[in-house]
Amino acid sequence: MKTETISQKNGHQLNGFTTEDIGDDHLFTSLETPMKPNAFEMSNDEKKQRISILFSEIMDVLGLDLTDDSLKGTPDRVAKMYIEEIFSGLDPENKPKVALFDNKYQYNQMLVEKDITFYSNCEHHFVPIIGKAHVAYKSSGKVIGLSKLNRIVQYYAKRPQVQERLTQQIGNELKNILETEDVAVIIDAKHLCVSSRGVKDDTSATVTTYYGGVFNSPEKIAELQNYINN
Ligand SMILES: [Zn+2]
């Protein structure tokens, strides 16, 4: 019965691609993280309990002995890690609260915060995406604390993701918060689903970019690349 459901799903066509193609080629369907309308009806404690039960089932099916001292705490640990850490960015309650400050010094050049290390997870394989984000903006008269730029990156990284969406979500959020179109995001990341499985390419990295407002010109892009590479 279960096998039937899976094969039906795999046969389902989306713009000519099967769901298998979409996963293997890391295509994605929307800029918003696809969420159920009732995603937050269950409390976090209930979610942890459910995930723990379901994860023990996966381990059990794999043939692992859940009475072993080393393994028996794993389902609870995974559940806690999913909800409180690596997928905590699904919950809007965890979105960083950002205060804007007046740009006292009238610094109206670009500000670049580079090499923000992040850990995310591929939504197609649930294995890590590890990378660096570089974000830049030109103040519209308001500035935010540098640590907030980092927190915004981390919030959107803590979801099942595709790199293009992560880039866009960070860009859109910065635009909204900073009340300017003049925002840029560059992400350079390694996908463990590409290096450790599938094509087993250990050397490739994926670069995605978002250039808004003044950043969307060849000169500004070159200037930005220059800051990031130095
Ligand atoms: Zn993947």
TrEMBL record:
Q: Where is the GTP cyclohydrolase I domain?
A: 55-220
Reaction equation(s) it catalyzes: GTP + H2O = 7,8-dihydroneopterin 3'-triphosphate + formate + H(+)
Q: Please indicate if the UniProt record lists Phosphoprotein as a keyword.
A: no
Judging by the UniProt lineage, the source's domain of life is: Bacteria
Q: Which UniProt keywords apply?
A: GTP-binding, Hydrolase, Metal-binding, Nucleotide-binding, One-carbon metabolism, Zinc
Q: Which Pfam families does the UniProt entry name for this protein?
A: GTP_cyclohydroI
How does the annotation summarize its subunit structure? Homopolymer.
PANTHER family to which the protein is assigned, alphabetical = GTP CYCLOHYDROLASE 1, GTP CYCLOHYDROLASE I
**What is the name listed in the Swiss-Prot or TrEMBL entry for this protein?**
GTP cyclohydrolase 1
| Annotated source species | Winogradskyella alexanderae
